[in-house]
Amino acid sequence: MNKLYFLGAITLMVLGCKDKKTEDKVVTEPAYYSEPYRPQFHFSPEANWMNDPNGLVYQDGVYHLFYQYYPDDTVWGPMHWGHAVSKDLVRWEHKPIALYPDEHGLIFSGSAVVDSQNTSGFAKNGETPLVAIFTYHDMDGEKAGRTDFQTQGIAYTLDNGDTWTKFKGNPVIGNEGIKDFRDPKVTWHEASKRWILTLVAGDHAQFYTSPNLKDWTLTGEFGKDYGAHGGVWECPDLFPLQVDGENESKWVLIISINPGAPNGGSGTQYFIGDFDGKTFTTDQKEPKWIDYGTDNYAGVTYNNEPNGDRIFIGWMSNWQYARDTPTKKWRSSMTVPRKLTLQKIGMDYYLTNFPISGIDGLASSELTKSWEVGSSETATQTINGLDQSSIQLKTASKDFSIVYGNSLGEKVVLTLNAGRNQFLVDRSASGKIDFQEDFGNKTHVAPLQLLNGDPVEMEILLDKSSMEVFINGGLLVMTEQVFPNEPYNSITVENNDPEANVIVESIKKMESIW
Ligand code: FRU
C-alpha cells in the first residue's frame, strides 16, 4: 500500500468512526513507514518476517527483488517468495506474494533468469519466460528425520512476474540424501551455451548444467578443503568479473556461511578463481569476506543487469539474533544495493562492494558544513537528522574514532587503529542490546592490512537502525544493526594521531524512499 492509499484509508476510517475505541486505534496507528527503527532508504517488507534476497533479476525495465517471506508472523515460518519491483534499485513498489508453498514443500532461497531463447519451452506465444529456480523444503520429511527433504524446483511467469506457474515436472533436481542441499543460483553460460546452476550441499558447492532449465547434470564440486567451515554453506553465487583497470576477467564464487563468520554467526565469504563450464577452481585456500560486520548475510547478485554491472543485495541481519531484534510490525531489511568490482592488489584479487550511484542521489541537503578535526583533537557536533544520513570523510590519521551518540549517552564507536592493524565497531552501548546475548557482547574487528597504510576515505550510511561503513571504495566494509532508544543526534571525532587531521567532508540528509 503506498502512502496516499494509506492516508486515504485512515481518513475513511476516521470519517466512518462509530465509537471511541476505533478512533483511538486510528489515532495511535503510526504513519506509513514511520514506526520506530523503520529504515527510510533501505528495503523492508510492509509487515512480518523477511530473510534472504531471492531471484534478483532484471527484465524489461524492471528490477525484481524476491525475498524469503513469512506473511503470518514477525519470526521465521513457512517460507514464501515475497516480491517487490523497482525501476532504479532505489525506490521499491511492493507486489503480491509470488510463490506459495505447495505439495513439494516450502519455497526456500533461489534465483531467477530471463529465458530469452525460450529454452524451457514455457512460452507458447512468443513471450519471454522469467524462470525462478528455488529449493523446496519438505517440512514433514525433515520432521520424520529423513535427509532428502530439500529438492530443487522451478516456476515461470510470462507477464514479468505478476502471475506464476509451477512446473508440473518438479522437482527438477532430486536429493540423494544430503541434508543441507539448497539455494540454487542459475545463470546463462555463454561459452558452453548452457545454463549453469550452483547450489550448496552441506560443506561444499555443486555445479550443474542444463540446456533447458528442466534437465540438470552434475558436473563438478568445490570447497570441502577451502575457506571457512564453521557452519553450513548457504546461498552461493557464481559469476565472471572484469579485473578493474586490467584486461583480465576472473570468476567469483560467493558463499554464505552460518555460523562461522569472523565476528560471529552469519557471514559471507568469497573465492576468486576460474570456471570452465563444469567446475570452479582456485588456489585461494583462505576465505575472504565481503563484509566484516555482523549484518550482511545471504547476499547474491542480479542476473541480466542491463548496464553489465554486478549488483549485490544482502539481508541485513544475522541468524544469531534475527528473530529477536526489537521491531514490532516487520522484521529486518536489505542492505543498499552495492556494486561489486574486482581489484588486483599485489598478486591477489579482492572484491569491493560499494553503494550504487543511485543511492548517492538520495543524499540531499547538507546537515552541517564540512569540518576538520586537527591532530590530537576531539570535536563534537549536534546534528538533527543524523539518524538518516550519509557521511563522507577523509584522513591520513592512523588512530581515530567516530562516535555516534544521543542524549541518553548511548553510542556506536567506530575506530581505526593502524598500530593494532584493526578497524573496530563497538555497539555494546548502542541502545537496546539485551534482546539477545550475542548482539552487543563484543567489539567487531576487521583487519586493516589491505588498506596498505594509505589515507582513508570513509562513507557511512546510517538509516535509523542500520549502519553501513565503506572504507576505500568498499575494500573494507562493516554492516551493523543498531537500536538506540533515542535517535543518534551527535557525532564526535576523536583524533588521536599527533600528525594528521580528520576531514569530515560532508554530512548529508538521506531522503526517504517510502
Ligand atoms: C539462509 C537460509 C537459506 C535457506 C533460507 C530459508 O539464510 O538458511 O539457506 O534457503 O535461509 O529461509
What does this structure look like?
The longest helix is centred in the N-terminal third of the chain and has 13 residues, at 3-15. By secondary structure, the chain is mainly beta. A hairpin with an 8-residue loop joins strand 14 and strand 15. It has helices at residues 3-15, 20-28, 139-143, 357-360, and strands at residues 48-59, 62-70, 80-86, 93-99, 106-114, 130-137, 150-157, 165-166, 181-189, 194-201, 205-210, 217-222, 232-242, 249-258, 267-275, 280-281, 288-289, 297-301, 311-315, 330-331, 338-345, 348-355, 363-368, 371-373, 378-382, 388-395, 399-405, 411-417, 422-429, 444-447, 456-463, 466-471, 476-481, 490-495, 502-510. The chain starts with a helix and ends with a strand. 6% of the residues lie in helices and 46% in strands. The protein has 4 helices and 35 strands. It folds into 2 domains: 48-357, 5 Propeller (Tachylectin-2, Chain A); 362-510, Jelly Rolls, CATH 2.60.120.560. The strands form 7 sheets. Strands 23, 24, 26, 31, 32, 33 and 35 form a 7-stranded antiparallel sheet that branches. The model is unreliable at 1-23 (pLDDT under 50). Bound molecules: beta-D-fructofuranose (FRU). The site of beta-D-fructofuranose (FRU) has 12 residues, from strand 1, strand 5, strand 9 and strand 13. Beta-D-fructofuranose (FRU) is lined by residues 51-52, 68, 79, 108-109, 135, 182-183, 234-235, 298.
